[in-house]
Amino acid sequence: MNKLRLQVFGVIFLILTLITTAIFCGYNMVIYNHQYQSVKRCLDQTSHMNISGFGQKKGDFEPDGSAVNRKPENVDDIRFIDFTVYTVKLNSDNTVSEVINHSGDGTSDEDIEKIATVMISQSYQSSIGNLYFADYSYSYLSGEAITIVNNEGTKQTLRNTLLYSLILYFLIEGIIYLAARILTLRITKPVADSFDKQKQFIADASHELKTPLSVIIASADALETNPTEHKWLENIKSESDRMNKLVADLLELAKSEEVADKSEFAAGDLSKVVEKSALTFEGVMFEKGVFLTDDIQSGIEMKMSEYKIQQLIAILLDNAVKHSEKGSTVNIALKKDKDIILTVTNEGEGIPKGEEEKIFERFYRADESRNRNENRYGLGLAIAKNICQLHGGTISAKSENGKTTFKVIFK
After folding, report:
1. Any idea what DSSP says for residue 61?
2. Strand 136-141 and strand 145-150: pairing?
3. Is 384 helix (H, G, I), strand (E, B) or coil?
4. Strand, coil or helix: 75
5. How many CB atoms lie within 10 A of CB 264?
6. What is the pLDDT of residue 145?
7. CB–CB of 278/294 below 8 Å?
8. What's the pLDDT at 302?
9. DSSP reduced 3-state for 109
10. Which of 20, 27, 388, 393 suits 10 as a labelling partner, its CA being 20 to 30 A distant?
11. Which long-range contacts (CB under 8 A, 24 or more apart) does 207-212 make?
């Protein structure tokens, strides 16, 4: 069970972590790409203006006689809101001619010249480095000018974004861990309950089989020693019958708990099935001194397994008879309103308070000694519950005022 929980937890945690990681990476990539495009756009615009201005002179004309589009007179003073831009004019031999620095950020012309010299030596026309680490980007036109963009603000913005998103990421991972634990417990709870019930079922069945087997073995040993004593044979037969009934009930319970197979279901007259099943118990009730009454509404039809409905009625009536006082009455009723409602009521021994749900559990017995003497193993009502569920119904029980009522509702 622990291994299953670990596997379920791993799958949930991995899926949620992958989703969170994808969102985290996607968000940072979008921010990075936005900043990258801004730097590139700044370089392209300033480079274009520099080339237009540095490569042309006043009075130049196009071949058709129209005036050349020149850089404005104040181009060197153009500032970009998001970036600090330096322009370095070059001589024909790529040596620095003039540094234009109107940024006011404290960077000296000498520093800008050194930066430009390094960039010229790299012989790249344009370069935008890793914005998480690069301090400068540039656009270089040999013999004309080099435009330098200060990336420090962009670098700090990207690093802050990465840091804050990482903090948020790990906080979300903590939440995911707790959520995965809770989801794992909820998902595996039905499996764990089923596993526990299965273990309890095996333990109970083993216990029930152990007793008759012990009696049979002891009686066989005694019979071997005293072959004339017939009581040992009687013990063997009695306990064999008990084992046979137990095994039959176990097989019936196993079949009733199988995956719902409704291939044998067919539309039928439920009223007639209930009436017929009740009539078969008149003889048993007469011997027990119990009277049977019925209130069955005619003409109620339902898609069902007739055999299983008969089995359900038999279990409920048998249970009612065995818990009825002599001279009392058992009533079976069937009616259809919004739903189809079947009830079986008996007078006598009631269900202990708080045990109303437990009586439908396998091997549950309120009176251990009495049930053992009557060869009852607490499987009948468990089978009845499974039959009701197979037909999309529910079953419940309640004792009050000396009467016990089993109520079945078919939707």
Report:
1. B
2. antiparallel
3. helix
4. helix
5. 10
6. 81
7. yes
8. 93
9. helix
10. 27
11. 208/246, 208/363, 208/377, 209/243, 209/246, 212/239, 212/240, 212/242, 212/243, 212/246
Q: How far from 274 is each of 215, 263, 268, 277, 343, CA to CA, in Å?
A: 40, 21, 11, 5, 11
Amino acid at 102: H
What is the pTM (predicted TM-score) of this model? 0.51
Tell me the pairing of strands 84-90 and 96-100.
antiparallel
> In whole angstroms, what is the distance from residue 376 CA to residue 363 CA?
9
Cα separations (Å) of 190 from 24, 184, 383?
35, 11, 20
- The angle that helices 380-390 and 230-256 make with each other, rounded to 10 degrees, is 20
d(CA 111, CA 107): 6
Q: What pLDDT score does 73 carry? A: 41
Task: Using DSSP, state whether 354 is helix, strand or coil.
Answer: coil
Determine the Cα–Cα distance for residues 273 and 281; give it in Å rounded to an integer. 13
The answer to whether 195 and 1 are in contact (CB under 8 A) is yes
- Number of neighbours of residue 378 by Cβ within 10 angstroms: 20
Burial class (CB in 10 A: 0-12, 13-18, 19+), 26: exposed
* pLDDT attached to residue 257: 60
Both structure tokens of 43: 């370089």
Token readout for 369 is: 């000694």
| Paired tokens of 299 | 């003409």
Which amino acid is residue 26, in one-letter code? G
C-beta neighbour count of 376 within 10 angstroms: 18
Residue 225: both structure tokens together = 């020693």
Q: With residue 340 as reference, give the H or E element that holds it.
A: strand 340-347
Neighbouring C-alpha atoms within 13 Å toward the C-beta of 349: 11
The span from the CA of 176 to the CA of 181, in Å, is 8
- Write out the DSSP string of 131-160: TTT-SEEEEEETTTEEEEEE-HHHHHHHHH
Instruction: Walk along the chain (411 residues) in steps of 10 and give the mean pLDDT of each run.
Output: 85 94 95 91 75 45 44 43 78 81 69 84 79 87 80 91 95 94 89 74 68 78 77 78 74 64 83 91 85 92 90 89 89 93 90 83 58 54 87 91 92 86
Name the token pair of 68: 């050349």
Q: Which of 181, 176, 187, 170 is nearest to 16 (CA)?
A: 176
CA dist 115 and 281 (Å) reads 106
Whole-number Å distance between alpha carbons of 43 and 88: 13
Cα dist from 174 to 26, 289, 342, whole Å: 20, 68, 52
Query: What single-letter amino acid sits at 119?
Result: M
